[in-house]
Amino acid sequence: MILYREFLEELKSYADEDYKAFHKKLLKNDNINVLGVRVPVLRKLAKKYRAEVETLLTFPDEFYEVTFVKLSAVALLPYEQFISYVDNCVSLMDNWATCDCFAPECIKNHKDEFLPYIYTYWNEDKEFYQRFALTTLLHYYVEEKYLETIIDAVQIADREKFYYVHMAAAWLIAEIAVKFYEDAVKFLKANLNGNFLDKKTHNKAIQKACESFRLSAEQKTYLKGLKL
User: Fold this and answer.
1) Cβ–Cβ < 8 Å for 90, 121
2) Over the chain, what HEC string results?
């Protein structure tokens, strides 16, 4: 069984001071302690210790990398095991990077089963609970069957209160524009009076969609004409 001091020493052996400074700026949270270990290394450690998830979850969350490995290890588990840890994992999120790293592929084959969790998270008055709900929809639910659920989610989420929720909502709408262009256009046109989305999220969604290589020049021009 891995001990915390051994695990921490292993993490520190991969630390890079230059990367630490760079990543600390990206996180935009001075309260987070960062060692400076790159993501590919953290993912390898998660695979190495995924059989010791119970032990990992007892470790203190004093460093960004410790939490990242915990969540990444849980994300590798089969759905039946993953689901028993998911609430605990979501409660540990305090930054966009940790939230976005937590994309358990097991959800792909259990989308309907996991929807009640998503509903619960997007109704929490917590920034990264809501962002996790939206990024999970982005990763696994952008298909015709779930478009109505996604539209409900971006409207209910606290986009104006939470910056990282606003960004996730815009990202999600942009992905709909790429995969279901006509549906996205219909929604954006219906929102031209600001009925469903705030101006900031509406326009950010269009900006992000227009950054995609998967839309034609004509489609991008039309979308830009729908800005508020």
Assistant:
1) yes
2) CCCHHHHHHHHHHCCCHHHHHHHHHHHCCCCCCCCCCCHHHHHHHHHHHHHHHHHHCCCCCCCHHHHHHHHHHHHCCCHHHHCCCHHHHHHCCCCHHHHHHCCCHHHHHCHHHHHHHHHHHHCCCCHHHHHHHHHHHHHHCCCHHHHHHHHHHHHHCCCCCCHHHHHHHHHHHHHHHHHCHHHHHHHHHHCCCCCCCCHHHHHHHHHHHHCCCCCCHHHHHHHHCCCC
Mean pLDDT of 160-180: 96
The pLDDT of residue 49 is 95
User: 178 and 142 in contact (C-beta within 8 Å)?
Assistant: no
Q: Crossing angle for the helix pair 39-49 and 64-75, nearest 10 degrees?
A: 50
Q: How big is the chain by its Cα radius of gyration, in Å?
A: 19
> Residue 181: is its pLDDT beyond 90?
yes
**The pTM of the whole model exceeds 0.70:** yes
Contacts of 162 (CB under 8 A, 6+ apart): 127, 130, 131
Which tokens in the block code for residue 71? 């969540």
